[in-house]
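Figure 3 (text version): structure tokens given as input.
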């Protein structure tokens, strides 16, 4: 049986990623993804967007953003057909090692209050909610 392969995403993956996130991602309460936004991200940090593939099919993703100061995770998603087989954990283990090597001391992720599935994975991986903080946002443009 084939083994899952982890690799950084490239420009050739952009359309497949957008389709993958529509099917697999948490898509509520956030700006929609666009090809330009994904390309900008790949240009800014070519190692941050990691995918897991099996037999050439993208089955999971995560964006591990490191700006030299803080480490943020976005777009953790595994295809519904491939869930509960450890791929989410594989992605998290991989990016946590990368953040540690870069010198990050802490990692954070935005998790919707009602996303019980997402919360179960973050908890299982050792993350906990911070009750004394709220995210403050301002849309640009
Ligand atoms: C969240 C998500 C990425 C998890 O991916 P996954 O590959 O299924 O997760 P894993 O198989 O690595 O699970 C790791 C652990 O998380 C917990 N977990 C995962 N799915 C769970 C479920 N349906 N119910 C309860 N616990 C669950 C378990 O503790 C699991 O370990 P175990 O299987 O040994 O018990 C996937 O469900 C998903 O894409 N959900 C939709 C998008 C989303 O909500 N992303 C998070 C945004 S904040």
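Below: residues designed for each position.
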């Amino acid at each position: 049986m084939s083994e899952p392969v982890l690799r950084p995403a490239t420009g050739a993956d952009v359309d497949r990623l957008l389709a993958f996130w529509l099917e697999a991602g948490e898509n509520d309460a956030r700006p929609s993804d666009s090809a330009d936004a994904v390309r900008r991200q790949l240009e800014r940090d070519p190692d941050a967007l990691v995918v897991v593939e099996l037999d050439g099919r993208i089955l999971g993703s995560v964006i591990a953003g490191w700006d030299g100061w803080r480490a943020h995770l976005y777009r953790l998603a595994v295809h519904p057909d491939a869930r509960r087989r450890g791929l989410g954990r594989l992605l998290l283990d991989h990016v946590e090692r990368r953040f540690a090597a870069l010198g990050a001391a802490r990692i954070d992720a935005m998790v919707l209050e009602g996303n019980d599935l997402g919360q179960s994975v973050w908890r299982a991986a050792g993350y906990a909610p911070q009750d004394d903080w709220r995210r403050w946002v301002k849309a640009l443009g």
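Helices lie at 14-24, 35-44, 87-102, 116-124.
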